[in-house]
Specification:
With about 100 residues, the chain is of the alpha+beta class. The chain has one domain. Helix content is about 60%, strand content about 20%. The chain contains two helices and two strands, in the order E-H-H-E. A two-stranded antiparallel sheet has the order 1-2. Helix 1 packs antiparallel against helix 2.
Length: about 100
């Protein structure tokens, strides 16, 4: 078994409208994950949710910056090329 695998998530040229939709779906999915984890931890009183809250803010900020780039491209009449790869590494449970 390989210790690292890479998978293409998004690759191609997209209109600004499609770019917004694709990236919104990706970022929103990650934000929802962290919100649910934070809620789960809160409900169980089982730990600190700071990491999840910080990650939510980072994702929202990144998406806001991406929207600015997409809007600039749209205003200038350009499309966007988006490439995203997911890298999966097998690691020790001790880490």
């Amino acid at each position: 078994m390989k210790k690292t695998e890479n998978f293409k998530l998004v690759e191609g040229a997209f209109t600004p409208s499609d770019s917004i939709n694709i990236l919104f779906a990706l970022f929103n999915s990650k934000i929802n994950f962290h919100q649910l984890e934070s809620f789960r931890i809160y409900e169980k009183n089982s730990g600190n949710v700071d990491h999840h809250q910080q990650r939510i803010e980072e994702l929202k900020s990144s998406y806001s910056e991406i929207k600015k780039i997409i809007n600039e491209a749209s205003d200038a009449g350009y499309n966007l090329e988006i490439r995203s790869t997911v890298e999966v590494n097998i690691i020790s449970k001790d880490l």
